[in-house]
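Re: beginner question about structure tokens

> Can someone show what the tokenized structure looks like for a real chain? I only ever see the sequence side.

Sure, here's an example I had lying around. Input first:
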Amino acid sequence: MRTDSFCGGLCEVKLQKAEGDRMLQGKTIILGVTGSIAAYKAANLASLLKKQHADVHVILTKNAMQFIGPVTFETLTGNKCLTDTFDRSHPFEVEHVELAKRADLALVAPATANVMAKLAHGLADDMLTTTMLACDCPRLIAPAMNTRMYENPATRDNELILKKYGWKVIQPAVGHLACGDTGKGKFPEESLIVGHVLNEIAFAKDMAGLRVLVTAGPTIEPIDPVRFLSNHSSGKMGYAIAHVCRMRGAEVTLVSGRTSLDAPVGVTVVPVDSAQEMFEAVTGRAGQQDMIIKAAAVADYRPAVVADEKVKKSDDELNIELERTQDILAWLGAHKGERQILCGFAMETEHMVEHAQEKLERKNLDLIAANNVKVAGAGFGTDTNVVTLIGAQGVQELALMSKEDVAVKLTDELLKIRAERISK
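And the corresponding structure tokens:
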């Protein structure tokens, strides 16, 4: 239990069970592993999918077993690893057909040129290819092979055929290959592949067709070529929002200050430094957006004069004259489209709800997410947040939860507001 001034009394905040790492719960995934030297990396991929609570069923080709054995995958997934089309140690049903029926997604990673050719032309001569031919769920494939093999015209044609038949191809990375060559053909990072899986099946596509702009991270305002003014924002909240919007099917643009975070898969990132750069990047794109979510921590002030050379230390006090930056959120509120949804954030240290409600009205917002940086688990740099959503519908206090879960709750509310707006 704790007492917070913005609660108006005694507030009990319960740590909700984090769902950010359970986005594939209830989903069945077939992971096909072929005879690429990168086959051993599929073990980590299977583990990452399992950590998202997916039900993972691995199919190994005969050549894949030259690199990694079935026991590894059985230990990681808790499911029997399938290798033989005619294995009679499973139930009476035709295994490859039954598994294909249950699958929410099929993934071949790594995929050799040989298996790509088979799948492109409908050949089914082993457990993997027969199962994939029976699948009508979303299908992903991650090629991994020698650069010359990947760039061979036959492989290029097969990739095009796979795309024509509905396969989504995760492009191989460029780098140093096991054979000693350097070029395109390297197995993509496992976390990137998981990102593609999440985009396909983690959520219903209830934001499909929507264009969403999200801002994230800090801005920096230079004092001289060496120093600048900034804040402690990590960008985690904005990146989580962009990620969830993309998983829900939106076309997402993320205008981001400097962070150490990887861009969410499938999101267009526009990097900026200063508040003025963010103002220009956001206002230049605002008119094309259905929804704008301003989660960035933008500097309110900047040095009025930026020194051309490093300011030298002296015994005298240094005074820096500051001037206001342009208010991005106020500009957006003043220029908001008739059906456009605008959401802001308010980070406070006292009287949180009152200050946030005033900001909501003054800047013509549809929703504002407020938090108190003095509350444990909220604020900059954490993986969790404690947020209160404030809008015309009232005040909704959320418990302590992961920032990705906050993003889900936030976008749920924004979709409700949009539905009401459209129905009028």
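Each token stands for a local structural state, so reading them left to right follows the chain. The domain at 211-305+322-423 is CATH 3.40.50.10300 (Rossmann fold).
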